[in-house]
Amino acid sequence: MNIKEETQKMKLAAPQLAASTIIQRNQALTQIAQTLSAHKAEIFAANQEDMTAAQESGIAPSVQKRLKFDEGKLTDVLQGINQLITLPDPLEKISLSRELDKDLTLYRISCPIGVIGIIFEARPDALVQISSLCIKSGNCAILKGGKETARTNKILFTLIHESIISAGLPSACMLQAEQHNEIDELLSCHDNVDLLIPRGSNQFVQYIMNHTKIPVMGHADGICHIYADKECDFEKSIPIIIDAKTQYTAACNAAETLLVHRSIAADFLPLLEKALNANHVKIRGTQEVNAIIPCEVMSEDEFDTEYLDLILSIKLVDDLEEAITHINRFGSHHTDSILTENKKTAAVFMQMVDSAGVYHNCSTRFADGFRYGFGAEVGISTGKIHARGPVGLEGLVTYKYKLFGSGQIVGDYASGRKQFHFKDL
Fold it and tell me: pTM of this prediction?
């Protein structure tokens, strides 16, 4: 397959998809949900082949969990699609309406980004989520999944592609790249591809960012923190920490570092240690932490580690300011949470921590498009331009200016014969 030629076709199909009605796009999503349900046995069989190959090749168990696509994952993606269907059309929304002069009116109206390339490792459910969001937002999608789930990705893409065609959407609005060399071909298609969204390891995302002229949206690490303040509720806080670390350890929003106010450490850490041990979490900490509970001693410069495993780093801090400084230095600006019963302390934390998500008294695992009510997400952006945090429909649209006139020319305004009066409508 010639990626450049295919992306040229997509570039031409993009305006057609953008012009489709919300009824057509919702019908496509409904058809996808029905088709996936009807063919789930084939999907699970393909995934079992991928899982067997992963086990035989010695892929780590934490990664294998991300490869699995079972009844639970199918239920989740179907819930996401159904939630997406209920959301309003993100296109043709007017965000500015202004009369520049009599019979000269300007509108700013939302529209799709165009052609989006999504390159992801593991997680075949991501293919369904990404496809659904692109369809709803009117964007053409190029999908490149990891080789570890090639069989699962293939059948999922085929079923989804057939569904959108049957709903009347352009065939060229969706493309699957299957060969590894096609990634580099895709990275060179800056004339046809408007945005790249990489999902995967730090090394993988950095490679994408460093080898393309196409704008890239995404995050390279998920080093999430929890700060247990001196006024935290122990009974409330410990389950939050356990959930953030263990509910899905391989996710980018799992907590990797716990900061504990020094004044509560002697009482808090033994209780936490018991809960962590019960959940098979290995503890790493500073010498100070090791003086209170048994742990593997780590140095200060190791706090920038994303474990994606049942390992938690712990450090003691003197106060809120030190916690904030640590997070802003070592964190990845993904999601960080404070545990405290003092609302003023929480407000300072949430103002000063420079992350896409800042939480109070809840698990970092809530950083998710589905849990935010977005239907799903194409990824989580830790950048600050265009979209930030879980990227749902709003992050997949941009806008254009439409100006309606009645014969006006700039020369009249430059000469002073006419004047703008700028009236918002």
Answer: 0.81
